[in-house]
Amino acid sequence: MMLRLLKHGRTPAGRLSRRWMSSGSHSKTTVLSFGDGSHGALGLRSSIIGMGSDAYEPTPIPGLPPDVVTVAAGHFHSLAVTSEGHVWAWGRNNEGQLGRDPLSPRETWNEPKRVEGLNKVRVQAAFASGVISAAIGDDGSLWVWGSSKRGQLGLGQGITNAALPSKIETLSGEEIVKVSLGWGHALALAKNGNLFGWGYYADGRIGKIGRELEISPLESNGTKLGSRGESSAFEAAEKLVMEAIEKEKDMPIIWEPGSIEELHELKVADVACGLDHSLVLCRDGTLFSGGSNVYGQLGRAIEYLGMQPVNINFLPLSIASGLGNSLAVCNNPSSEPTGNATSVVSWGWNKSSQLGREGPDNIPQVVEGLVGESPVSVSGGRAHSLALTAKKELWAWGCGRNGRLGLGSSADETEPMLVEYLEGSEVIQAVAGLVWYKDPANGDRCYDPTKTSASSEDPSRQVDELLDNSI
């Protein structure tokens, strides 16, 4: 998890209403991080036990310039953009997602360093997935680097690696303003409201782009897992993963950005990719979802593949996706469309209370604990959620493992809690990463952090976690 905040003084007018900051602002900002430090994504100095130290409270990241204007959190690494248009990166670099020499000493990966190969690009925003990074230039050009077997780079047929930032030429002529990256899939939003998708397109997670939609082997295996006993859940999941990997040797991949057919007549305002689902908010207020619906994260009863409207009774203003859950900042039903009264609405996976509320998981409902707090943005992590309010305060809820809630402990929180450590500071951005976890006692197998033993883990999520190694 990362925060960007002002330690003293007032935030410049309009800062919260803009997703990316202009280089005209000279206010000094501090970037803080907390949570799991196993891959160096926190950017904190190594301890005597190595770079995997966790942080249970927001902790300043050393070595960053004082003019960071936006930050991004991937699965295992982090990015920051300065007012001069420079990108800094730290964390995992196995796939080259830091934009530095992959042969650089592993013990230095947790140290923030400038990304190489962007000297002629003035970057205004950056984004991260598990294995790649992306940056938008001030001319709207999109640059990517890292490695993805699932076509997430978008650089063309069969291209799975980019050691240095490479421009996506297919999008030349489009002024890209936002990118969202999921598990092998990607969406890019242009200033004119056009939306483009590419990468792994199973389950309709990027809609229909010139090909028939396909069901992922993973998705079709979900019902099989539910019928097995807990004692064999992991073994069953592992077997199905191996079967799915074999089937996915001919993975359904869109190698270059393409226009999404279901949205041709609509203009898009915001996008958000979860692990294996996507949300698309149109300028007319219609919210679409596509992809996996194993946990009800699509928020709709219609099970058709591709982009379909969400059954939501609120007017969404902005959206976010966690690993298997969805979030939206909405106008309160009783307020005018242009009013300031807002609420957070959540739906989907809720094993660790990341929805922050009780009630049906698959139906979008208000997070009551934030009523009256005027949330302005939300961010979803693996099994927790964050909300930033108009008062520039941060609220966190869900799984607290490794201190990811910033509340000083590993305790889970079933409803939003104010991060009191930040009292006296003005938080201007908060982002959550999708961190994975491994259990040495189980042979370094990935596991659900909300459980304490392999036999009681959520088997359908086990499949997703194991397959992450094949990205």
UniProtKB/TrEMBL annotation:
Residues 31-433 form the RCC1-like domain. InterPro entries: RCC1-like_dom, RCC1/BLIP-II, Reg_chr_condens, Ub_ligase/GEF_domain. Coiled coil: none annotated. PANTHER family: REGULATOR OF CHROMOSOME CONDENSATION (PTHR22870), REGULATOR OF CHROMOSOME CONDENSATION (CELL CYCLE REGULATORY PROTEIN)-RELATED (PTHR22870:SF365). Residues 448-471 are annotated as: Disordered. Keywords: Repeat. Pfam families: WD40_RLD. It comes from the Eukaryota. This is RCC1-like domain-containing protein. RCC repeats lie at residues 29-84, 85-139, 140-192, 193-284, 285-332, 342-391, 392-433. The lineage of its organism: Eukaryota, Viridiplantae, Streptophyta, Embryophyta, Tracheophyta. It comes from Solanum tuberosum.
